[in-house]
Amino acid sequence: MQPISRVSLGQIVGLLKAVDEAGGDADVAEIGRSVEMDLDALGPIVNAAEFLGLARAEEGNLTIEELGRKVLNAGLRQRKAIVREIIKELPSFQRLTERIQATGRPATREEVLAAIEERFGSHNAPSIFNALIYWGRYVELLSYDSRSERIELRQPSPPAA
Fold first, then answer.
1. pLDDT of residue 161
2. Which residues face 26 on adjacent strands?
3. Residue 106 gets which letter from DSSP?
4. Sequence-separated (6 or more) residues with CB below 8 Å from residue 62
5. 1 pLDDT band (50/70/90 cuts)?
6. Which among 3, 2, 1 has a CA at the least distance from the CA of 135?
7. DSSP structural state of residue 105
8. Beta strand extents in the chain (DSSP E only)
9. Is 53 buried (19+), middle (13-18) or exposed (0-12) by CB count in 10 A?
10. What is the pLDDT of residue 155?
11. Is the model's pLDDT at 106 over the cut of 70?
């Protein structure tokens, strides 16, 4: 399993919109040409959309999944709430939140990097750490103080009714 990518939800939604405009199923290379992105730049966005269960990539085609449609049709706060639920279920986030809850204190950057290195190797650890922090902050599950290098759990804002 590939670790979560550090791309923005806006990039993923933009990709989903491009696929939707093509009928919900499109050739990735063709989408790249239409949004003027090469496959190297588009690849991480496709991977993130697939990793989050919003789209399915198969034989060069990208198809929007039901959850992807739900994200496309939602407002910004609802999108964030949908993605928050996805992120909460990712094993890397679950391990991080369990570690913080079990110790009753914030986790340090060093502790989290060591845990990531154990699972994914030292080469990938910094980028996975950055992605965890990025997505955790975005969906309001984590707060990170870059000065003290401490990670804490936070309570997300309630979604708009």
1. 55
2. 62
3. P
4. 15, 19, 25, 26, 27, 28, 31, 46, 49, 55, 56
5. very low
6. 3
7. S
8. 25-27, 55-58, 61-64, 107-108, 142-145, 150-153
9. middle
10. 82
11. yes
For residue 64, count other CB atoms closer than 10 A to its CB: 24
Dihedral class, residue 108 (left if φ above 0, else alpha if ψ from -120 to 50, else beta)? beta
pTM here is 0.78
Give the strands of the sheet with 25-27, arranged side by side.
25-27, 61-64, 55-58
* Over residues 32-56, mean pLDDT: 88
CB 128 within 8 A of CB 92: yes
Q: C-alpha distances in angstroms, 5 versus 39, 58, 129?
A: 15, 19, 10
| Token reading at 147 | 């000065």
Q: Which of 9-13, 36-40, 80-84, 93-97 has the lowest mean pLDDT?
A: 36-40
